[in-house]
Design goal:
The chain is α+β, with helices and mostly antiparallel strands. The protein has a domain at about 30-150: endopeptidase domain like (from Nostoc punctiforme) (endopeptidase fold (from Nostoc punctiforme)), CATH 3.90.1720. It has helices at about 5-25, 30-40, 50-55; strands spanning about 60, 70, 80-90, 95-100, 110-115, 125-130, 135, 140-150. A 6-stranded antiparallel beta barrel has the order 2-3-4-5-6-8. Strand 4 and strand 5 form a beta hairpin. The longest helix has 23 residues, at about 5-25. The radius of gyration is 26 Å and the shape is globular.
Length: about 180
């Protein structure tokens, strides 16, 4: 085989190899692996399963905390849910989020605004900044709650309580204690 034919064959092999690599490289970043990476919360599977999977493994609640994962429920338009990490608390009804795959397929957004729009102020529904608007999106999204990075305490056998003696005489007030009745 002459060098020209060899070069052409090599080019064909390389282009075929590149074609098989291209689809893998064309994959885009999902919210789940990104949230796992930035929060340290080791849960796998679709975002809408994180809340249930966190039970007994991580502390959960309905108050935003920096570093917690905001777990969105599945909706018709978002059938596998969404997860985002709370990067900062702005107020009792506003946080900043860091997340992936929201405004732009595979894109990462840092410190974007999310506000609690639930009537009771309990973080059961939010609106999130959307790049297409350059502001909050027009949709409200239901939340399951927040998954905190602390592991859930393991069940411990209760130790018997030591006998307690209650003093019946007046004692000096404890510094910083509130008077009874306030």
């Amino acid at each position: 085989m002459n060098s020209k034919a060899l070069t052409a064959r090599f080019a064909l092999v390389v282009s075929c190899a590149l074609m098989t690599v291209a689809p893998a490289q064309a994959r885009y970043l999902q919210c789940v692996p990104f949230a796992r990476e930035v929060s340290g919360i080791e849960i796998r599977g679709n975002a809408n399963t994180w809340w249930g999977q966190a039970a007994g493994r991580y502390e959960r609640g309905h108050v935003p905390v920096e570093g917690a994962v905001m777990a969105f429920k599945a909706t018709r338009g978002m059938p596998v849910g969404h997860v985002a990490m709370v990067s900062r608390i702005v107020s009792d009804r506003e946080v900043l989020l860091t997340h992936a795959n929201w405004s732009r397929r595979g894109g990462i957004e840092r410190d974007v605004r999310a506000i609690d729009v639930s009537p009771a102020g309990d973080w059961s529904a939010v609106r999130v900044w959307y790049a297409g608007n350059g502001d909050l999106g027009t949709s409200s999204y239901p939340l399951a709650g927040f998954i905190y990075p602390e592991k859930a305490p393991e069940a411990q056998a209760e130790a018997p309580l030591a006998p307690m003696t209650i003093a019946t005489t007046a004692a000096a007030p404890v510094a910083g204690a509130l008077p009874v009745g306030n």
